[in-house]
TrEMBL record:
The keyword Cell wall biogenesis/degradation does not apply. The lineage of its organism: Bacteria, Pseudomonadati, Pseudomonadota, Gammaproteobacteria, Pseudomonadales. Residues 248-262 have a biased composition (Basic and acidic residues). Residues 237-262 are annotated as: Disordered. SUPFAM superfamilies: Hypothetical protein YjiA, C-terminal domain, P-loop containing nucleoside triphosphate hydrolases. The gene is cobW. This is Cobalamin biosynthesis protein CobW. Residues 263-354 form the CobW C-terminal domain. It catalyses: GTP + H2O = GDP + phosphate + H(+). SMART domains: CobW_C.
């Protein structure tokens, strides 16, 4: 009987709004016949990134596409990897004769090292290998010293005391994502000056092992041959990669001290709302509460299609993505990600701004 080769896995990590989903969409759109399974590790109750990726069916039926996208909804792979990741991988391993590659998009708040270490488990290690960990960097955010897009409260604290820079949970998480990388993409490189881009490259290089390559990209447009087939075997050397998170768990099995415990993800459901009013209200909310990310779908009165909204800081992208289903409730569902968020307060302020 023919022995199946190990199934290569690419892990895409990076901070909120860095462009991970865009990169995955680009990879799927340019799969060139490769049979690719996708695992989306969504932070929040709504599988919004999964919904976006399911639109990239490349000629598949909706049923086939849905079967290829697995969503781990609890968000933190560091904590949930054993509870959810293992059964998903076991199912994919059973089907590996029908697959050429697996792509995993981690949550913007997930730590990549524990996920890579999961590939040391015998049942997975015998069937899969981590082809590469790709870290996507938001170049303008790093150039601005915020690492993620416009985390106003954290950045204000950093500027008040430069000695606290590396103690910021944002900076530690950014450094840990780089520490696990086999390839780093400086995304949105077209949005900053060549001088700032060179400075970002130097800053990122300081956090990396010398062998890790750094490439520049705009909107995640990187040739697929550059992204897969790296053969890094990351699970073999991940234990030697230093991360700040290691210190939080040394000699302690208590996982209550995560770097990302300071982050909240809240879900809000609203009735139909005027598009401009909703975007204005969300912008005000982002500025007032230092919200890092807004993702969701909106129901706009008298519009037959739902509005997809993705906000990073005060930058919002929006487009009508599909028709509302005949039996589908026309409501607005949003996920807000930030620090020390009060769900009831945020919902009340949104409803007041929208007069609903």
């Amino acid at each position: 009987m023919k022995t199946l080769a190990k199934l290569p896995v690419t892990i895409v990590t990076g901070f909120l709004g860095s462009g991970k989903t865009t990169l995955l969409r680009h990879m799927l759109d340019n799969a060139q016949g490769r049979r690719i399974a996708v695992i989306v590790n969504e932070f929040g109750e709504l599988g919004i990134d999964g919904e976006i990726l399911k639109q990239c069916t490349i000629g598949c039926t909706e049923e086939e596409a849905t079967g290829r996208v697995y969503e781990l909804a609890n968000g933190c792979l560091c904590c949930t990897v054993q509870e959810e990741f293992f059964p998903v991988m076991r199912e994919l391993v059973a089907r590996r004769g029908d697959l050429d590659h697996i792509l995993i998009e981690t949550s913007g708040l997930a730590l990549p090292k524990p996920l890579v270490q999961a590939f040391q488990w015998p049942e997975i290690r015998s069937a899969c290998t981590v082809d590469a960990v790709i870290t996507v960097v938001d170049s303008p955010a790093v150039a601005a010293g915020t690492f993620a897009a416009f985390p106003d409260q954290v950045d204000a604290q950093r500027k008040l005391d430069p000695n606290l820079d590396h103690e910021s949970p944002l900076h530690e998480l950014f450094a840990d994502q780089l520490a696990s990388a086999d390839l780093v993409i400086l995304n949105k490189s077209d949005l900053i000056s060549p001088e700032d881009l060179a400075r970002v490259r130097l800053e990122v290089a300081e956090e990396l092992p010398p062998a890790v390559k750094i490439i520049e990209a705009s909107s995640g447009r990187v040739p697929l041959d550059v992204l897969i087939g790296l053969g890094a075997g990351s699970e073999e050397h991940i234990d030697s990669r230093h991360s700040h998170h290691d210190h939080h768990h040394d000699g302690d099995d208590d996982h209550d001290d995560h770097d990302h415990d300071a982050f909240d993800s809240i879900s809000i459901e609203l009735p139909q709302a005027d598009e401009s009013l909703l975007l204005d209200a969300l912008t005000q909310l982002v500025v007032k509460h230092g919200i890092l990310r807004v993702k969701g779908f909106a129901a706009i009165p008298n519009k037959p299609m739902r509005l997809l909204i993705q906000g990073v800081g005060t930058r919002f992208d929006k487009h009508f993505d599909r028709q509302w289903g005949a039996d589908e409730a026309r409501v607005t569902r949003l996920v807000l990600i930030g620090q020390e968020l009060d769900a009831a307060q945020l919902e009340a302020q949104l409803r007041a701004a929208l007069s609903v």
